[in-house]
Write a structure and sequence with these properties.
By secondary structure, the chain is α/β, with parallel strands linked by helices. Helices cover 51% and strands 13% of the residues. A 6-stranded parallel β-sheet has the order 3-2-1-4-5-6, with helices on both faces. Strands 7-8-9 form a 3-stranded mixed β-sheet. The protein is globular, with a radius of gyration of 21 Å. The protein starts with a helix and ends in a 20-residue tail after the last helix.
């Protein structure tokens, strides 16, 4: 190995990934393909265990995962889950570690986590991602980052492994999370628009595929429209992003909108649709299952 290659290898960070659900497990595999040393931890260890076969060191505790790591990547459900993981990991933390916080947690939780990181001597990067299961597995996420640019060199190998694009938004945490909420507003609006079109087609006696064929190749067509519709019509609701997570994010968007004095009628309606779909038992399914919130109730045969 040449000296330059050895130097490059020596600069590869050790990464602790806290949270190995749908997104986190895909990100772990992308990090491993890039040749990084990865420790993986999940509160429910059975979700992390399969990653050992891919080359990750699966740890029993968050403390063990973060001890000696250069970068700590969190991909958990919400702010309280991230805070709890950091509390559990605290005996293993040391000053100067970079916390790459990639969970979508909202603005208040982002500010709280930034304070926690500062108190622990960590370098905090607010780094939510855009993308779902497949991009996480392929390492093609888009990562929004806000935080000190002095941390770029240490985290670039991680960002390059998990994403095809990194957008550095600002020098202070919070800006990346604000951008993520805007992006998610677009996604949530699209998926509910697709679901309602399919609902109306069904209600009017139009075959959903006829609608999709008419749209195909035109200026209003999209891969998202065709892909989500195909998943629903085939009955494959394996979650890339679940109804329950979409409901959580929709509520975070509304909280941010209220704080900023903005009225979001479509997201307000989306919260209602996702909640109805969740109540009907579709919370763990892909978010296109919001379709079921728009189906006409069955009429009583009596």
């Amino acid at each position: 190995m040449t000296s330059s290659a050895a130097d490059a290898t020596s600069k590869r960070p050790t990464v602790a990934v806290l949270g190995t659900g749908i997104m986190g497990s895909g990100m772990v595999r992308s990090l491993l393909r890039a040749g990084l040393d990865v420790r993986a931890w999940n509160r429910t260890q059975a979700k992390a265990a399969p990653l050992a076969a891919d080359g990750a060191t699966v740890t029993e505790t968050a403390e063990e995962a973060v001890r000696g790591a250069d970068v700590i990547l969190t991909m958990l459900n919400d702010g309280p889950a991230v805070a709890a993981a950091l509390t559990a990991a605290s005996p293993g933390l040391h000053a100067g570690q970079v916390l790459l916080q990639s969970s979508t947690v909202g603005l208040d939780a982002t500010a709280d986590l930034a304070r926690r990181a500062m108190d622990a001597g960590l370098v905090y990067l607010d780094a939510p991602v855009s993308g779902t299961k497949q991009p996480a597995e392929q390492g093609t996420l888009t990562v929004f980052v806000s935080g000190p640019s002095t941390a770029r060199a240490s985290v670039n190998p991680v960002l390059d492994a998990i994403g095809q694009r990194t957008v550095w938004v600002a020098e202070t945490p919070g800006a990346a999370s604000r951008l993520k909420l805007v992006v998610n507003t677009w996604v949530i609006t699209m998926v509910n628009g697709i679901a309602e079109c399919l609902n109306l087609a069904e209600g009017l006696g139009i075959a959903p595929q006829t609608f999709l064929d008419v749209m195909k190749g035109g200026p209003l067509d999209s891969a998202y429209l065709q892909g989500k519709s195909a998943a629903l019509l085939s009955g494959d609701l394996t979650p890339s992003f679940s109804v329950s997570n979409a409901l959580k994010d929709s509520r975070l968007i509304l909280d941010a909108a209220q704080e900023s004095g903005v009225r979001l009628d479509l997201v307000t309606a989306s919260v209602d649709r996702f909640a109805r779909a969740e109540e009907a038992g579709h919370g763990g399914e892909d978010m296109i299952a919001t379709y079921y919130a728009g189906r006409a109730p069955e009429k009583d045969g009596g």
